Every structure is written in C-alpha cells, then in structure tokens.
Amino acid sequence: MKLVSVLVLLFVAQLSIAQSNNSAQVARGKYLVQRVGMCGDCHTPRDDKGMPLPGKELAGAPIGFKPLAPMPWAATAPEIAGLPGWKDAQIVTFLTTGKLDGRAPNPPMPEYRLSASDARAVVAYLRTLGGAGAKSQKSTATAK
Ligand code: HEC
Questions:
Q1: Residue owning the nearest CA to atom 10 of ligand 1
Q2: Residue 77 Cβ < 6 Å to ligand 1
Q3: Is the previous residue joined to 84 through a cis bond, with omega within 30 degrees of 0?
C-alpha cells in the first residue's frame, strides 16, 4: 500500500514537471513566432488600416507586396494556426532545413534554419492556436 502511494506521488511529480516543461516550451515558441520570426507579418490577415484582425492570428493572408523583378512568388501565406494537415516532424524539418518534403517554399517565405529545440517550440506553440472557431471561419472563407 505504501509503495503504491509513493509510486503515485512520483507519477504526479513527473507529470507536473512534464507540464511545466511543456508550458516553457510553448512560451519559447510564442516568443520565436511573435518576436523573432515575425510569422504574423505575412500569415495574419489585416483590416484595411493594416491592423491584424483580432482572433485571426496566423489564420492565413494575402501577401500585400510584389517583387520588382519576375521571380517565383507565393501570393498568399497559408493558415499555420494549429498547423492543419501537417505532422510535427514535417514542420520541424521545414524550420531547421528550410525544406518541406524536400521542397523549398516560394518567396517571400523565409528559409529558416532554427535549432531543433527552437523548431519544436514553434510547433508546440502553433499547435495551441486555431480552435473550432478558427476552423469554421476558415471554411466560410474557402466557400467564397
Ligand atoms: C515574409 C513573409 C512570411 C513570413 C515572415 C513567414 N512566412 Fe511562412 N509562408 C509565407 C508564404 C508566402 C508561404 C507560401 C509559400 C509557398 O506557397 O511556397 C508560407 C508558407 C509557410 C508554410 C507552409 C510551407 C509549405 O511549403 O507548404 C509554413 C509551415 C510556414 N509558412 C510557417 C511559417 C512560420 C512558422 C513563420 C515564422 C517563424 C513564417 N512562416 C514566417 C510567408 C511568410
């Protein structure tokens, strides 16, 4: 009986360590996304005054500028809130090597070379975004 309660305590202690590691990782990811990578500059939609639309962080947006010379170019940045349709490993590889499934993204998407732990933190943060609300808004937008 005593051994069982010790084991339970150990288990609970480990759970809370895992949880606090996880929240530190999410906080690191938020910092990298919002303050370093500036992902929202391209991936967050804006109103006509250029202000980010509330509740639509990283929901995907048109790119508001064009290159002066002809070059490969992506006119929209996809939704990355919640990373819909991608596996964690794909995005970690993308953010550490600059390639997704062996392909470099079109400009203006930067080819990041993050460390593996920073890339995992970015993924952990992006997975916390984009709830059911974001998804239903997205399907309305696609229907247009
Ligand atoms: C300067 C604009 C810009 C910034 C900053 C930016 N992106 Fe992008 N991103 C794009 C565009 C444009 C695409 C679409 C590229 C394409 O279609 O090839 C894209 C595509 C992506 C994709 C999908 C890649 C694919 O090949 O399907 C992911 C994931 C992504 N971005 C994540 C991020 C993250 C995470 C950050 C911040 C760390 C970020 N992006 C910052 C413009 C940007």
A1: 109
A2: yes
A3: no
